[in-house]
Amino acid sequence: MSDWVLVIDSGTGGKMVFSKIKKVFSSENYILFIDKKYCPYGNKSQEELRNHIKQVFDYFTTHFTLKAVIVACNTLSSMFKDYLRDNFKEIKFFFYEPLLNKRILSRPTLVLSTTNTLKNSKIIKKYQSNPNCYCVGFSCLAKMIDDKAQNIQDFLNEQLSFYMVKDIKNIVIGCTHYEAIKSNLEMLFGKVKFYDKTPIILEQLSKVLSKRGFQGKTLYFDDINLLK
User: Fold this and answer.
1) If we measure between CA atoms, which residue out of 153, 178, 38, 24 comes closest to residue 98?
2) Distance between CA atoms of residues 17 and 70, nearest Å
3) What torsion do the CA atoms of 24, 202, 130, 181 make, to the nearest 10 degrees?
4) If pLDDT is split at 50, 70 and 90, which confidence band does 180 have?
5) Which terminus of the chain, N or C, has less C-beta within 10 A?
6) 34: closest CA among 49, 46, 17, 51?
């Protein structure tokens, strides 16, 4: 196979997304780009991120034939979805975005994202006026997760204490990194229902990727500057 599937994120979230996708579509050739140098994306300026992401995609589209790209980052999806589709029209993109709809918001729902996703997500803007929708954006939580910070539980206790009295039933994972702290969130809110985009992404990918049984290749990169 000569075509590649690119999975891009700034850290832990991308690795978790990749493992779920590869488990289902094992025979594809993958490029896993975990952009450690630019982690977190959630607090970078739009101009800085746009310039960086252009360099990233210019590199990979020059050196590889990409059949699909999974943008495993809600921040990049919320800020550059149209830009990527318009500038790389030959590629099929699959974007991680907060999973929100009227059914989910029929019960009190906490939406956790980065500050950039909270500011730029069209989906969050569409639903954040719903009285059952409580949105919180973090600038540093993704980096704390990548660094395995010891004070994550204390940080969450402090930042989310206001919402502990809201009878939260659902938590929308609006940053793939936050998949790693579900147990921490359950310590605050009990057995809530978690929502993220993975089941929908897998369904969409089934129309493009192969489920054949053999193992494809995986290439791993963590700093685009090392490749120049």
Assistant:
1) 178
2) 9
3) 30
4) very high
5) C
6) 17
